[in-house]
Structures
1.
Amino acid sequence: MRFQTSQQMKLGQHMKLAPRMIQSMEILQMPLAELRERIEQELESNPTLEMVEIEAGTMDERDGGSTRERELSIEPESASDFARLDEYTESNPDAAENTYSSDGKMSRDYGELAPSRSGGGDRDAKFEAMASAPARGASLSEQLGDQWSLTDVSDRVKVLGWVIISNLDEDGYLRTGFEELELRAGQEVSALEPTEADWELALQAVQLLLEPAGVAARDAQECLLLQIDALGDRLGEERDDQMSVDGDALEVARTLVSEYFEELMKNRLPKVAARSGLTLDQINTGIELMRRLSLSPARRLVHDTPETIVPDGIVEYDEEEDRYFAYLSDGRLPDVRINQEYAKMSADKKVSTQDRTFLKKNLSNAQWLMDAVAQRQHTLLRVINAVLDEQREFFDYGPEALKPLPMKTIADRLGIHVATVSRAVSEKYLMTPRGVVPLRSFFSGGLSTDSGEDVSANAVRATIEEIIGGEDKAKPLSDEAIVKQLKDRGIEIARRTVAKYRDQLGVPTARMRKQF
């Protein structure tokens, strides 16, 4: 056996997804609010990036119509990022799953330069812009704990009550059994050797002494009964709020929840009336009162932060030219620029090599971010304008006029990759004459009508919603009846498809929609 070594040269091309290309992809995909946060983070971490001071006289102009006429200046290097990304995505379908290393992240080490950021003792505008942040709201356990600490109960009940409060879920329910509670609580509670009666006493104390009524319930039925009992305790009080109740209605509601809860949940009101001796009018009065109660009482203390929708684009109608036009609402983004003093320092050989290296790195990061944002805006506006052309009927006639629009159609029209279109429309919203609409909702598959026209799935859902909205609530339409009405409108789909679309719309079955 003979071993032989040799050297060979091989020429080949390999495309790699650079960290900045991945970051460009992320910038494109960000909704406006998230992009604003990203820019503010860079303002905080990068001393070479600064916020442009806006004079009062130019504020309205920046937030208004001049935005749509602004030219987007894009550096050649940044503009080619998306083209290279498209090429890479074409040959690597899983590219979006890649991540970049920490080497690509922005530096937060300011070194000796940090003190100079607020030169002359004046406050930096970008720090002023980020100085006010809402304080974290108190959690459910903290708010209930504050109430519990003021209650006058025995030490034994007090300890067990703390355990119960700390194990409530986000809706305020106690989903855990007493044995499991003792195991979770540890040695302090185990040493008390609490019996089931002790736990029941502590639970009743939590339920009766803490607000809002209904917390610490073990199921929906108990939750409603606790709230009904709390209303009953206030019957003699003079109340001007919406929770003023009639004693008879309260008694009907208590009877319905305590004795006929299962039938009530299945909307079997005639059966309830026959078994209870109540009239349908009395039952409906009790149900009307119950609608004012909550199945998630703890939400009154801890509110989920509502998702703030900030439209990325605004669509308006030009009557003179009979056309719709779009512009970006990027006036909400911080207006940033390169700090020229730091730019000069990066080229000044009197500055130490370490500081110049630090400045050059951050200047590069700042310039890249500005270019990536500009490229994002340029791509997004092109996509929006193409959608306006393709979906003109929606803006004229409403959701029922939506056409099937594959993303490939827009991609081919603009000469970009489908993945770029998908990222551009992700979590983006348009403010239109027909309300705020998700940009992605304009893209969907569809089916053909009897006349041979194409109609989108979103349009079919809108039509189903319209049909259900106009039905007789005493005789709601079954899915089969909806199929027939759709067929009369030239749309032929299967019953199971109607059921699927109805579920997507959050509309219950005909039996549950029936009003007696």
2.
Amino acid sequence: MAQQPGAELAPGEYPPLRGIALVMLTLSIAVSSFMEVLDMTIVNVSVPSIAGSLGVSPSEGTWSISSYMLAAAVVQPLAGWIGRRFGEVRTFVTSIWLFVIFSALCGLATSMPMLIACRLMQGFVSGPMMSVAQALLIRNYPVHLRGLALGLWAMVIICAPVFGPILGGYITDNWSWPWLFYINVPVGVLAAISSWIILRRRESVKVKVPVDFVGLILLVVGVASLQYLLDNGNDLNWFASGRIQAAAAISVVALAFLIPWELTDPHPIVDLHLFTRRNFVVGSLAISAGYFAFMGVNVVFPLWLQTTLGYTSTWAGYAIAPVGVVALFLAPVIGKNIHRINLRAAPTFAFCVFAASLFWVSKLNDQASFMQLATPRILQGFGLALFFLPINQIIMAGVSGNELASAAGLSNFLRTISGSLSTAVCVWLWSDRTEYHHGQLIQTVAANAPNTLAYQAQLGQLGIEGVPAQAVMERVIGGQASTLGANDVFMLLFVLYITMIPFIWLARPPFGAAGTRAGGH
């Protein structure tokens, strides 16, 4: 609700910022949030280079990714508690400074254990950054512009994962991998200084409560075990491995005990009571399912382009980038007009657009041109801005000011875990379906079949016979199987989007959240 002129402000509440101070705050929060999300994907395409430089295998190099995501996922649900305990402004600025320090140490790493340790700490200190940033935006923007603020924030969250691999590939190819981390230093320093100058006298109310050590231990153990399972399941053949079985059992037990403990503890470290609110549950599950499918495409699509179609990492990045470019321009427009939008119809339309683009991609083959591959991503970009921001408004419906960071942290945690789960499941599914189609294709390629003989004759005219000819045919079959497997993944994600549409309509208006203007009904 807007503050009435002359009305006394509650403790921890301040008049909205205006003018250059508001612009500078927006830029500071945008670049810091961009850094935090970007670092989840910027290393992806550089793993071979990092692993080679530090003398380890590429599979060991992937720990530079998973260690960061693990630590960030653990801390995200704690953002609300940390913000209340130490103050949201101090938490945000301190998080940026520590992120800068550990980014520099990552670049200076001389061994893989050192890099993993620094990435782990980088994830820990960055965990509260994005959730507290969202709360600070809402607190300091005028009521009539809060939709625009969230639109700008959503634009950052949408675009960072898309541009991460492109930027990572360019830096690795043209400079060296330590610069993946060094670039955070000047940007982070400026963001921290400007944020402190603007917000140092606008601190939120601090609440000193006992530390819920039992809840903290259960959360860390449960999430760490789950993340280990997701990161290593494919390599260890999932539940055929004793380590994966142990990780699954520990995760289930720890998280199962965490739920009743947090619901009954007088000072829970994770506020699970938010799940008693219908819109929070609907919005969180919708954004988790939508992000699951979104990340599944973002992982399988570029891998398919590189392993089957022969794309370089840079050109694979160009092929997936249109989704971010379109959303980059649409998100602020959607945010500015969020109060005019039906907050259930908008994500319904977005899911239809996502489903249509995935159905389109699922029908492409390994002969598709660059434009045929990139055009569905342009279509998906139109849906992306209408998906993220309206559902985020549904999540925040009815959330009070002192619960903003908790609600944002918990929903961001679910989104992060959903992305990790998607990466593991979709890559495994693609591999499994590729093996299935490979077996089916091998059975259809009989030695004396007319098509086989005709293809062998074509190879013979090129001087390719015997073992080399068999190798060529195997590559062709492997490429076709990989394409069919990817098509199966895209089709399943298409079904997921369609299935989620009725679920969105379980949300109930009004959708005015934490002082933001109510969205459409």
3.
Amino acid sequence: MSYPSEAKTDRSLFLIVLFAGTLFISASLMFILQPLFGKLLLPLLGGSPAVWNTCMVFYQSILFLGYLYAHAISTRFNQHSQIRIHAAVILISFLALPVALPENTVPPTESNPTFWLLWTLFLAIGLPYFVVSTTAPLIQKWFANIGHHTSHDPYYLYAASNTGSLIALLSYPFLLEPAIGLANQKMYWSVGYLILSILIAGCAYVLWKTRKNPVSIEESAPLEKISLSRKLHWLALAFVPSSLLLGLTNFISTDIASVPLLWIIPLTLYLLSFVIVFSKWNDNIHPVMVKLQPIVLLPFIAYAFINPADLPYWAYLFLHLLAFFFAVMVCHGELAKDRPHTQYLTNFYLIMSFAGMLGGMFNTFVAPFIFNGIYEYPIMIVAALLLRPWPEASFKKGLLVQISAPALLIITGFILYASVNNLLRYFDVLVISLIALTLLTYLLRAKPAAFALMTGAIIFLALGLHGLSSHTLYQGRTFFGVLAVRESMLTDEHNQPEKYHELFHGTTKHGAERLPANLAKIPLTYYSRPGPMGQLFKEFDNSNQNWTIGVVGLGAGALACYSKERQNWTLYEIDPLVVDIAGNPAYFNYLKLCTHNTTIRVGDARLSLEKEPDQKFDLLVMDAFSSDSVPTHLLTQEALELYFKKLKPNGILAFHITNRHLLLKKVLSIHSENLHFPALIEEFKPQQELPLVVATDWVVMAKNPETLSPLSQSRLGNWQKMPLYFDMKPWTDDFTNIISIWK
């Protein structure tokens, strides 16, 4: 893209290194501060997704304000005034160093902590984060005015900024978090911020010396104003990838696999797209991406949505990531191709940041309330296809024809759904028909409206078909994820088919119940009578008549069927929807049939337990999972010290650690050695085929070895001493390391 520009004579490589290095450091600090401060807040507010959502809204809002500030001072003040104003803002921000939580800060216990959290974030990191947020547009604007031979098109510096973001994103969980505690992370970040301030001062010095009597570029080179339609086009091109990123991340953890740190991959691809499209390579790469996208979509739609059962989950994941990368590359490529003259540089970035903020707000606050699944993800797939380059002819004629074909397909689908009894009898025919239609969409690739809307119609018909085949009785969505109750079939002891209900959080089963009245009180899955929990309750059957028991994590409520009349049980659950589902007899009857003296408390487990009296419990069961992951703040040394503070001297702590991806016993083993709490583990595998009895791993801990001796000597199971590990520091509120416990 060519721009009108005055003659440029300075070809200094040093200037590129200085300005690009400043952007690189700034973006790195931004992407390190976000997880760093999130970990600082975790013990205070618990692992509620609402906390993370509020933090993300704060970060995106401050980023937008930073871009607005850069736009305002660069368009209203001359260069020397800009430098004076920005120097004052940076000096004021030093008051917030080193970054840390305000002293004696305590969240409210009786009211919603959202406004407290926003105010705490503002006091602790608001000013430094604001300064870091201003850097990308402001430094590029300054570079446009220094007389370098590339100043007429400084957008390539944005690639340096996103490279910094990308490296920081990957280095935090893999390098910084495993090696450096939070206290040192705060100190090092503050040192990095001082270095950034020096680099900004260097950029300001270059700008200051550029002209003796600076005149703004707006005065020297007036250009035609940018139309509203072009601005809205920029907004759409930035909004859709932002929403698509969050939608895919949620979809992966809900419908594919709940693997820790998997969210890093979509964000890496998202940042990589910015690096590529704002580099010098985009003019050659963008046309190739536009041509290849329809080809990539063929296997993506056919296998990722229409017939996913034929692929292993890693291939399923690869298809989604590949399609996502092409979608954001096309959108961001169009955005970079349409970048304006440097006179409108800050305006361009302001609209981009505003769109990013809107995308985050839509996925965080709007989608969970209007959708009961991750439907914003396929919607944004269609929106991304609508943003492909449109030939001029598509605007002038044929638009109605392009829209009519997808509409006809959707109407046909609704008619079939409403009029055909037992539609699943034709499942294979319908799947083949949808795959054939997918092949036909390729022929429509030159007609963006028809191509996008036909793809959307096929995806949503496929989702509806699979919804029917999964026998979902109920599906709901909250800040904590997507919960589903499904009806399945097993073969009972007499080889007769028998229906049962299952509770899923994302892709992970959180409980099941058999429906016949004589079987409805039998705990199943991870809590079965032959398993570790059944063994524990049976071994202490004679002494636990009056126990006070706490259970963190409700699930379907199966553990409640071990309760006795004189026992007192407290069930802790963070998600109110789980409580509603477990208490609804149409889905599960454990709570209705088995509970006696039982209280249910809604809220984060660690925060709820802190309010309980010391030495209250004889048994505390930790069964808190978010899909397939245990929140890390429930696994730290401080958390274990809290649990034992709430246990009686002879109390038992039971920890559910079944996990497909993480070696959680390693964390507990190191705590056991470090805190001198004896511990036993059973990695249970059923010895015979029993309905809905599954393999599961549990750890029990106590203050005294004698408390656990009945279990270790029992013939009911195979309880063993915990294996010893010496290659990892204990997890604390200051230090955790997910990478070190990968299986």
4.
Amino acid sequence: MILGWRRRATVAVATVALLAVVGCGSTVSPTPGSSVTAPATSATASGAGPAPTCGPIPPVAPPSGLDQAGWWRDRTFYEVFVRSFADGDGDGIGDLKGLIGKLDYFNDNNVASQTDLGITALWLMPTFPSPSYHGYDVTDYRAVNPDYGSLDDLRELVKEAHRRGIAVILDLPLNHTSDEHPWFVGSKTGTGPYADWYRWSDAPQGNGWQPDGSRFYYAAFGADLPDLNLRNPDVTAEVTADAEFWLGTAGVDGFRLDAAKYLVEDGPTTENTPETHAWWRTFRSAVDAQVPRTLLLGEVWDLPKVSASYVPADLDLTFDFALDTGYVGAAQSGDAATLMRLMTNVTKLYPATSGFGAFLSNHDMNRVATQLDSDPGQLGVAADLLLTGPGVPFVYYGEEIGLTGAKPDERIRTPMRWDASSPAAGFSSGAPWESMSDDPPSLNVADESASNSSLLSRYRNLIHLRQLHPALSSGTWAPVASDSSSVVAALRVAPTETALVLTNVSTEPVSPTLSLESSPLCGRPAVFGAYGQTVTIGPELTAAGGFHDYRPVATLQPQSTVVILLGP
């Protein structure tokens, strides 16, 4: 959405330790590719335990193809505002050619180097023609904004992204159009084929009704954003055909669906009506019949129990807006207890087969670096929570370098900083459409890429770690009890591996003792290697696969995360 919602780094990287633990079978080696490029200052240690005694952990499977059901569950998404990302022609406005030129930044298909970010899916904010800079007021659902390029440019982007294993979804605002859309211009006459394509009344019926001569039209988000009348089957048929156009003609992989809870009003009830749920089911059925396994991702800015009510019957995913507040709050306060309760609740609400979108900030919020006052430790631990936690993670462009920004909206959507050059930090050779963020010149991709202790390096390490291990990318999440209120502890379980994840959100070292009632584990797991912190022994399991009074590390460093792989 585009309303002014109110919501509440050059970084010393806290160690992300990868501890491989096996049990019950023949001797095994660490999972191929499981080590993660380390900060130069990190200490490395190995611990040895009893010889493993059950079968080997299977190799990590490659990312699932786009033709498989639920292909989005093990991917890391990146939200791109095309206007602000990369300018390919020097006019100061970001465009599709500029974005194509930066695809290797996301994923260069070189697994060994890990110099890319590891991103496997892109969400493009609206790319349709629009009279505004943001694009959420569409004037043509079957064209590309000329500021950004052409339909051929979008096709080329999708082709090149797919070649790198990156999926592409478009932002599709269906609740409303621009007041300059030909449909609305025709509807204002009160006659003709578009007369009933918007909601009209001879008198205002409450909030959101806008005057037009002697009549009123419904526009919940402002006079320039009239709501479509989605009770009209002709409107539904047209916008469904528009979506199918992009799936077929451009080959995109799905849609982020703006203002998904507002589509069909029922008298004074304007949110989450039964008619809205039913409309999405109809839309989804039609789209799936045309292009199976299309991702439909809804923006349902609401309580978790409400956003969860849209999946899996109506939509494939919805964003969880409570969890982002929880992550940022825990990073800021150093207290994990509230976040643990929230994560336990949220993960129970969403179906494991579908899931939810997780994030730290987006284009409608003050940037997370601003929320956390650019504190290096807090930014790092927030990234840890997002990228080792449950759900499908979404990174807002620039978040990985600590880009700051506070409302008004243009200032949370400023151009990307690629280097320290003038006039636009490598974004453009010309004057940028919006002035750069207020960050120092050293905050940029080039400088942070050269530092193993930067926030960007931390994001790269975490995303690659997540991509390599299905326990992190698609495993279930279950809380593990800790005697430390600053530790987020959880068991992540996938068919091929199990991981224990610990994050110390505080600025003080802790020595957590852990307990778990039951798990799929068996035998006596043994630590055969450790990275980042010394680990000497695995948990002693009960008959139910649980453990008590387990202390995996003598000291868990401040604002750091440990990931421990456990055998079956």
